[in-house]
Each structure stands twice: as C-alpha cells, then as structure tokens.
C-alpha cells in the first residue's frame, strides 16, 4: 500500500472534528488560522492525502490530541479514539527512531533491554502498517460478543463468543460458512496481537490455561508434533505463533488480494515486531498513572 493510498484510508476513519484538530496543528506552524477558521477550512484535508499524512506525522499532533499546549495539560479535545491511537503509534515511531533498545517482558512485570529497535523502526516505516495498528487499537474500544447455535452430541446447544476470548472466538470456525472464515481468522489474529501487545502480563498469566491452549492448537490444525512442542512453550511465544498463523490464514483465504490483505500478510510475517511496538505504545501512552485507556480484560 503506497503512502497516498494509506493516507486515503486514514481519511476514511477521521471525523470532521479530527480534521479540524489536524488543521489546527497546521495553523500552529503557519499562524494563518485559528479556532473556527481552522475548523471551517479542515475539509480540504480529505482531498489532499499527502498533506493529511504530513499532519498525521507532525510532532505537534501528539500534544494536540492530549490537549497539551503552552499553558499545560488537561484541556479536553474532540478527537476520536482512532485519531488518538494514530497519534500514539506515530509518536512511538518518532521515539523508536532514536533509541538503541526497548524493554522486553521476560516474565510477569519483569523487563530486560532488547536491542531490536532497528527492527521496530523498520516495521513502523510503512504508513500502512502504522494505520493497521491504529485501526486495531480503535477496534477494541468496543468489543463485540454474541451467541450462536451448534449441534453437539446430537443436540443443538447455545455457545457464546467474545472478541476478547480467542478460544471461544475460534469456535466460530466450526459453524460459519467458508466465505466468512477469512474474517474470523483475521479477528483471531487481531485479538491475539491486541492481548500480547496491550496486555502482555494478562496474556502471560491468565489468557491461556493448558486446556485452552490445547483447544487453540487443535483449532489451528497444526500437525501433532507441532502441537506437542508449542503446548509447552511460554504463553507469549504460543500466542505469537498462533496470531501469525491466523493472519496468514486470513490472507490466504481472502477471495481477492487487496492492498489491505497484503498488509495483513506483512503483519503475519512481522508479528513479533508488531507486538513489541504495541508493548511500547501501551507502556508509554495507554496506561499513564491513574488514567488507563483500557481496563484489564475481565475487570
């Protein structure tokens, strides 16, 4: 996906208020617009994807979405969750451009420096992959759950699923039509990346017990030898493997290979880098003291 196409995809998510906020970032540089003037002129950004992407990459956007100015923080701004997350991902790209290492979790609440910042910078170098992460985060501000009917033991039974429960979500693969499976695989990849990226401690300690891990491995249709090997792997390693596999299945089963499907495949091949970028975003911006964007799953 080239830069202009990525910018057009960004534009499809942005509200009029988001555009006004972006225009105000431009106004701060030029001094030509302010207040209502910036909002009135913001519509031009939808027709200028190059300018839109420049403003999304502007270092002033992070401060703008947090309501920070020269008088201090705390001012409310009408930014959508998508724009906020897009600004966070872009901020991560800027920060990782100048560091040599990033903390890596080795156990619950334990971190060691890992010198893989160049790989994370490379992942974030493409606007389409930054867009992917912003869309992922925004998609989990509301979590879907529902029920479905399945025949088991000669009887019809009701089962539930939640987008934050990969085990129950994987159960849909047994009942949805073949044409809908790419979407289920995609969402399985999403929830796996979200949990390991935003809530790695939860994913390590609570997301998968031995029974649930075995169910997911069977649902992934891995060879028995791989299932046995992965069953004893650390939770994060297991989820990384499964998440990449889900994304590849979504890519391979898609009826048409679009630019977006291509990005899904790129994230599958770089799942660990995507997960560690989200670790950085979560540690730095999503969970400031006393003001988390997300509550812990199940809380």
How would you portray this structure in words?
The protein is globular, with a radius of gyration of 21 Å. The chain is built from 16 helices and four strands. With 299 residues, the protein is mainly alpha-helical. The model is unreliable at 32-39 (pLDDT under 50). It has helices at 3-13, 16-30, 36-40, 49-56, 60-65, 81-96, 117-124, 127-139, 166-170, 181-198, 200-207, 210-219, 224-231, 235-253, 259-269, 271-286, and strands at residues 102-107, 110-114, 145-152, 155-162. Strands 1-2 form a two-stranded antiparallel ribbon. A hairpin with a 2-residue loop joins strand 1 and strand 2.
Helices, strands, pairings?
Blueprint: H1 3-13, H2 16-30, H3 36-40, H4 49-56, H5 60-65, H6 81-96, E1 102-107, E2 110-114, H7 117-124, H8 127-139, E3 145-152, E4 155-162, H9 166-170, H10 181-198, H11 200-207, H12 210-219, H13 224-231, H14 235-253, H15 259-269, H16 271-286
Helix pairs in contact: 1-4, 6-7, 6-8, 7-16, 10-11, 10-14, 10-16, 14-15, 15-16
């Amino acid at each position: 996906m080239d830069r202009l196409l990525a910018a057009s995809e960004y534009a499809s998510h942005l509200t009029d208020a988001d555009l006004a906020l972006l225009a105000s970032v431009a106004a701060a540089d030029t001094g030509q617009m302010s207040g209502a003037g910036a909002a009135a002129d913001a519509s031009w950004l939808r027709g200028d994807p190059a300018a839109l992407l420049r403003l999304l990459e502007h270092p002033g956007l992070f401060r703008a979405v947090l309501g920070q100015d020269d008088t201090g923080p705390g001012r409310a701004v009408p930014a959508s969750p998508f724009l906020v997350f897009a600004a966070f991902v872009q901020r991560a790209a800027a920060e990782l451009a100048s560091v040599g290492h990033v903390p890596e979790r080795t156990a619950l609440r334990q971190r060691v420096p890992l010198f893989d910042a160049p790989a994370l910078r490379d992942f974030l170098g493409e606007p389409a992959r930054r867009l992917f992460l912003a869309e992922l985060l925004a998609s989990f501000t509301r979590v879907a759950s529902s029920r479905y009917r399945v025949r088991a033991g000669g009887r019809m039974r009701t089962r539930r699923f939640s987008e934050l429960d990969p085990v129950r979500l994987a159960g849909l693969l047994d009942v949805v039509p073949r044409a809908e499976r790419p979407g289920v695989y995609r969402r399985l990849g999403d929830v796996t990346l979200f949990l390991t990226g935003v809530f790695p401690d939860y994913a390590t300690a609570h997301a998968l017990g031995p029974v649930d891990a075995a169910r997911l491995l069977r649902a992934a249709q891995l060879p028995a030898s791989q299932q046995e090997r992965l069953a004893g792997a650390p939770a994060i390693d297991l989820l990384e493997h499964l998440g990449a596999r889900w994304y590849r299945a979504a890519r391979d089963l898609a009826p048409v290979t679009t630019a977006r499907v291509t990005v899904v495949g790129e994230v599958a091949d770089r799942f660990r880098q995507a997960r560690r970028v989200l670790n950085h975003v979560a540690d730095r911006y999503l969970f400031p003291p006393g003001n988390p964007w997300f509550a812990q799953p199940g809380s």
